[in-house]
């Protein structure tokens, strides 16, 4: 009993004033993910990595938009989104006070435009992602002709690319050679 | 390629098994140097498991059922034995069950430890263990339709839950007492309880004659979920959430099962960090249990003090992982966050404080006059019963069996040091509590030691590719005992099968024996001493075997009676 009393006096006040005074969290605390839509290219890497399906991507080919959405109610604050993001568009903040009065307030979303394929005029990928890929690939070469080639190539949708490839093969007469060898 | 450069452990045991059953063994496959899967003829299954269990110091760690019809046309059973004799290794006895007869000889008559596993495989795969003494459902609800087996590959979409077939509870609670008793069926779910579970204590006056319980009301279907819609890395985060207290242990066990299956070598620093975090988890879990022991024995000031000190373990977790729980740090191949010099300093300082605080509190607890009297000789787990049922963790160590996965099958960072094992021979609540106290000090030592010896270098490797249908075990020693995971990779970037066995699963079956012969007021303390997720025992039905009447007592009331020991709810 005496030992307990001693321990109690030794401890003094063990509680914090929180929520009436702010409470400090550790450095590199994993709190609410903050999304920077300006930086985001809507590539969906985060949606694939998210173990809890908190981040989802909805692509509307008719309207030409892609909607990125996070539901904080599902988020487990693992930070995989931050880890896999190629453009550092999402970062975990130290903010842990996420309670809201209405469920809808837990959802945050951003809408991105899709790029149109110049040959078939159909939407196929987010415009920002296409631009991002174009810049990276074009930077790698010095010749302006090849650069223009790359730009055209990246801007084309995969289906048209395949068609163009086949047509090129036919033009080069490769098809016949393949047949002969068989 | 699996790295098999060292000498394989377990060869002598296997040779002994072969000499006993020369024609039964069909194939042996090594997953790691100390992990082998031995395929036996189905008829020889019980005898092979028995020989390893009783003649070579084997303990039943888990049993895995697997629907392998798309691979080889059969169902498969894997009885995992943790060999703790001269050769410490894992031997898995594997047998194929024909998809047309669906029958296999039950191992339970020879080894009681297999009972829950065989009941579960019966529920989940529809396999029929011939000779199983207890054929009640274990995992599936009583109103689940017959003939629908959730873990069969062709059975159901994981989002689909069939309509209940009946509105009434049909589960029969077992009572081994000789007198006829009245059993009152009682809806197991209650809006105010966190986790449902139903206890029936069969009592004579104040004495518990027998006990039975029904669990799995909140089975979350995690194995099916992982197999149907998650990738390998995503499952590590799901494994975290198996438990709210010792989740990291599951995450490490799962990740290492895949790493063992694919022969991935995790960098040593990553392994050391895993072990450090596992010990932090043990600190907070054991301090929680010490607090609860205080609470259930009516010593609430002690409970508050232990929880105050436990907060230091939570701070440790926050410093090292960025969250108060050690969640979300694993990927296949290593860990995601390094321990920097600054954090190392803070950790050493905190664990030393924590050690000093705990020493003072433990001193206070054992010198509190009525505490030792309240827990000594109560909730006795007989060593022979423990041997037959393979319980794990402090529960088995309190009954004189010094088994600890960290020492027996050193994994992760535990390979870098030798882990002491504490066993007590009192077999009672006091012994289990003393084991936990000793382990708190060990954890502090291990953390300090590992911070020192952890070599610099990478913490994760990405130098591997997934290959289909490889399988292996992964294991950890969680605060409550060994966690055992078995994974088989699939051919679609998803698991073909994930079997996750939490430590408390092995401890529930012996609880019945621990309750017998004690008084009703000891029940909460006894249940608390296996340290289950406590809210699992939300209410208790008391059946008086002599007066042939039963009373249902809200859990809070039983708990109050255990603490105050006045105003018996039976009167």
Secondary-structure element series of chain A: HEHEEHEEEHHHH
Span between termini of chain B? 67 Å
Low-confidence stretches of chain B: 182-194, 534-539
Radius of gyration of chain B: 23 Å
Figure out the total of helices of chain A. Answer: 7
**Overall 3D form of chain B:** globular
Cα distance spanning the termini of chain A? 94 Å
Query: Largest contact between protein chains?
Result: A-B, 23 and 28 residues
Structural class of chain A: alpha+beta
Could you estimate the helical fraction of the residues of chain B in percent? 25-40%
Q: Just name the CATH architecture of chain A.
A: 2-Layer Sandwich
| Tally of separate domains of chain A | 1
If strands are numbered along the chain, what order do they take across the biggest sheet of chain B?
1-2-5-4-3
Report the oligomer: heterodimer
What value does the average pLDDT of chain B take?
A: 87
Give the integer mean of the pLDDT values of chain A.
91
- CATH top-level class of chain A: Alpha Beta
The share of residues in helices of chain A is 25-40%
The main pleated sheet of chain A reads as:
4 strands, antiparallel
Shape designation of chain A: elongated
Task: Give a structural overview.
- The complex is a heterodimer of chains A (182) and B (571).
- Chain A is α+β, with helices and mostly antiparallel strands and 182 residues long.
- Chain A has one domain: Alpha-Beta Plaits, CATH 3.30.70.
- Chain A has helices at residues 2-11, 45-49, 80-84, 127-139, 144-155, 158-172, 174-181; strands at 33-35, 55-60, 65-71, 90-92, 107-116, 123-126.
- Chain B is 39% helix and 19% strand.
- Chain B contains 18 helices and 16 strands.
- Chain B has helices at residues 11-20, 45-55, 69-72, 115-125, 222-229, 232-240, 247-262, 268-296, 300-321, 341-366, 370-375, 383-389, 394-397, 405-408, 429-453, 503-515, 523-529, 555-564; strands at residues 25-32, 35-40, 58-68, 74-84, 88-98, 103-105, 128-130, 198-204, 207-214, 330-331, 334-335, 471-478, 481-489, 495-501, 539-544, 549-554.
- In chain B, strands 1-2-5-4-3 form a five-stranded mixed β-sheet. Chain B has a four-stranded mixed β-sheet with strand order 9-8-15-16.
- In chain B, β13 and β14 (495-501) form a beta hairpin.
């Amino acid at each position: 009993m005496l030992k307990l009393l001693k321990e109690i006096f030794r401890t003094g006040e063990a509680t914090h004033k929180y929520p009436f005074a702010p409470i400090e969290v550790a450095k590199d605390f994993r709190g609410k993910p903050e999304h920077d839509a300006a930086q985001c290219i809507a590539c969906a890497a985060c949606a694939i990595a998210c173990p809890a399906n908190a981040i989802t991507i909805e692509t509307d080919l008719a309207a030409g938009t892609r909607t990125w959405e996070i539901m904080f109610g599902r988020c487990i604050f693992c930070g995989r989104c931050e880890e896999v993001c190629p453009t550092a568009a999402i970062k975990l903040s130290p903010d842990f006070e996420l309670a809201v009065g209405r469920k809808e307030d837990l959802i945050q979303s951003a809408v991105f435009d899709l790029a149109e394929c110049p040959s078939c005029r159909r939407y196929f990928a987010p415009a920002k992602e296409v631009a991002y890929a174009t810049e990276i690939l074009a930077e790698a070469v010095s010749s302006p002709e090849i650069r223009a080639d790359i730009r055209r190539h990246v801007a084309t949708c995969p289906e048209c690319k395949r068609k163009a490839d086949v047509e090129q093969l036919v033009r080069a007469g490769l098809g016949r050679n393949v047949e002969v060898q068989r | 390629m699996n790295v098999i450069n060292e000498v394989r452990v377990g060869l002598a045991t296997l040779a002994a098994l072969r000499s006993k059953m020369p024609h039964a063994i069909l194939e042996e496959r090594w997953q790691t140097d100390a992990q082998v899967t031995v395929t036996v003829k189905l008829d020889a299954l019980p005898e092979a498991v028995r020989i390893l269990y009783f003649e070579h110091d084997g303990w039943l760690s888990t049993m895995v059922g697997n629907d392998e019809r798309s691979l080889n046309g059969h169902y498969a059973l894997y009885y995992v034995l943790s060999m703790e004799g001269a050769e410490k290794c894992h031997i898995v006895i594997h047998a194929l069950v024909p998809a047309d007869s669906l029958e296999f000889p039950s191992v339970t008559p020879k080894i009681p430890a297999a009972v829950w596993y065989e009941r579960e495989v019966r529920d989940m795969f529809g396999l029929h263990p011939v000779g199983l003494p207890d054929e009640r459902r274990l995992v599936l609800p009583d109103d689940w339709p017959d003939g629908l087996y959730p873990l069969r590959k062709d059975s159901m979409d994981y989002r689909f839950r069939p309509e209940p077939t009946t509105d009434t509870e049909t589960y029969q609670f077992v009572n081994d007492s000789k007198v006829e008793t009245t059993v009152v069926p009682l809806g197991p779910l209650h809006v105010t309880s966190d986790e449902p579970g139903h206890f029936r204590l069969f009592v004579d006056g104040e004495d518990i004659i027998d006990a039975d319980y029904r669990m799995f009301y909140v089975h979350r279907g995690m194995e099916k979920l992982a197999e149907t819609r998650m990738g390998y890395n995503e499952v590590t985060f799901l494994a975290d959430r198996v438990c709210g207290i010792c989740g990291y242990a599951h995450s490490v066990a799962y990740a290492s099962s895949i790493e063992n299956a694919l022969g991935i070598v995790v960098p040593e620093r990553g392994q050391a960090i895993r072990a450090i975090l596992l010990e932090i988890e043990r600190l907070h879990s054991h301090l929680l249990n010490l607090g609860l022991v205080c609470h259930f024995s009516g010593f609430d000031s002690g409970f508050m003090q232990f929880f105050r000190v436990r907060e230091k373990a939570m701070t440790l977790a926050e410093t090292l992982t960025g969250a108060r729980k050690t969640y979300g740090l694993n990927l296949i191949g290593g860990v995601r966050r390094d321990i920097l010099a600054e954090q190392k300093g803070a950790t050493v300082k905190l664990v030393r404080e924590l050690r000093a605080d705990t020493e003072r509190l433990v001193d206070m607890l054992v010198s509190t006059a009525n505490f030792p009297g309240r827990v000594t000789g109560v909730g006795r787990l007989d060593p022979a019963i423990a041997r037959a049922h393979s319980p794990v963790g402090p529960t088995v160590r309190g009954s004189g069996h010094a088994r600890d996965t960290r020492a027996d099958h050193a994994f992760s960072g535990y390979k870098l040091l030798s882990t002491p094992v504490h066993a007590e021979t009192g077999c009672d609540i006091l012994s289990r509590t003393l084991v936990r106290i000793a382990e708190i000090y060990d954890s502090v030592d291990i953390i300090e030691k590992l911070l020192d010896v952890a070599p610099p270098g990478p913490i994760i490797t990405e130098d591997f590719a997934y290959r289909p249908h490889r399988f292996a075990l992964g294991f950890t020693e969680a605060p409550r005992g060994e966690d055992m995971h078995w994974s088989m990779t699939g051919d679609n970037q998803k698991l073909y099968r994930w079997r996750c066995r939490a430590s408390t699963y092995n401890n529930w079956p012996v609880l019945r024996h621990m309750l017998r012969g004690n008084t009703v007021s000891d029940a909460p303390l006894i249940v608390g001493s296996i340290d289950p997720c406590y809210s699992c025992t939300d209410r208790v039905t008391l059946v008086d075997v002599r007066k042939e009447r039963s009373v249902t007592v809200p859990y809070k009331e039983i708990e109050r009676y255990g603490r105050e020991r006045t105003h018996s709810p039976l009167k």
